[in-house]
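Hi Y.,

Following your request, here is the sequence exactly as I used it, all 320 residues.
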Amino acid sequence: MGEWHPDVLGDGFEQQTLPLGDDAEGEVVATLVRAQPRAGARLFGEFRDIDVLYVHGWSDYFFQVELARFFTDRGARFSALDLRNYGRSLRPGQAPGYVASLDVYDADIAAALDVLGTAREGRRLVLLGHSTGGLTLTLWAARHPGVADALVLNSPWLELQLGPLGRQALAPLVNARARFDPLGTHPVVDLGFYTRAQRELGTLPDSPEGWRPAQGFPTHPGWLAAVIAGHARVASGVDVGCPTLVLLSQRSTSALSWNDTMLSSDSVLVVDDIARAATRIARTVTIARIDGALHDVFLSAPEAKDAAFTALETWMTQLA
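Below is the corresponding structure, written out as tokens. Let me know if you'd prefer a different format.
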């Protein structure tokens, strides 16, 4: 077992590096972050037998302290995973966020679960994924039935922004390029408006340099092909094998130009398409549409954020 060290989030947070071998770009690691319960936490609260593992989205890393405290204050053990090539796990010379298959993350998640020891201790596992992390955990849970006891998805990227027909039309072109130029470049399509919305609302802390660029990481054909393949698997129907909560904004806004509706809507995904896709991932799915929420519902303005936490608490209490 590795050693825990102080984390960049400060008091109450520790991190452990999870070695994953080497690839063409050198050393590969993931990083597990754990939140220690703060004074006054309900150590025997309603979530006392639950371990929560959080996985971030694209161009992201774990920094959601308030989300961690929601769980630890109710007795749960909360940990978050910075996947390979992201945040705490990004090493010099690596293509940020790049993988050629989402299945690669099996090793990252397995290493995290080994440290958590959830199964060994007879505790329940709740997986919590945001955006691309939501897609990753959905596919992982479907490939590992019976491991997770519940799945919580915060605006999961379950369908391409072009919709099913657009995805099917684009897939052959992306796959062809991925075969001969997997690390080629794509035009920049993120104009930074989602980051601007969070900053204007005051919900986004300063990030270490390179961990969360305002316009996202450069994207590559190999990575996009992997994401589209994941969307196709969801569209064909998967079963994560456990109760699932999907949190979404009530509405989407096009990100082609700035407007103030981006302060109260999802400017990244088409939420109606995500809601439809969510019905194909489990036998029991609860979809909570949060009025006024951003793409990360827990980084929204206070009223919407509170509504998201209320929906989460209601659902988790029923689970507990």
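Residues 182 and 222 are 4 Å apart (CA to CA).

Thanks again,
Q.
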